[in-house]
């Protein structure tokens, strides 16, 4: 299991929507928009703390 560096969703590498090699490491993505966001600014996603949510993140309310 891998983690999408943009949305932090767990991704099964064999089922990933996209993958990118960056600085010798392979990153897997749940969607093409997440891949595109990563490619636009990889350092932003790699340097933020794990607990921080991506820009525009809105938590879901229970029972949604």
Automatic annotation (TrEMBL):
GO molecular function, a single term: oxidoreductase activity
Pfam families xrefs: YHS (PF04945)
Domain TRASH residues, every copy: 4-42
Protein name per Swiss-Prot or TrEMBL: Haloacid dehalogenase
Organism expressing this protein natively: Sulfurifustis variabilis
């Amino acid at each position: 299991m891998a983690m999408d560096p943009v949305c932090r969703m767990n991704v099964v590498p064999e089922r990933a929507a996209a993958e990118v090699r960056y600085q010798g490491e392979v990153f897997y993505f749940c969607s093409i928009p997440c891949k595109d966001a990563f490619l636009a600014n990889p350092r932003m996603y790699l340097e933020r703390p794990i607990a921080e949510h991506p820009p525009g993140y809105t938590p879901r309310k229970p029972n949604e």
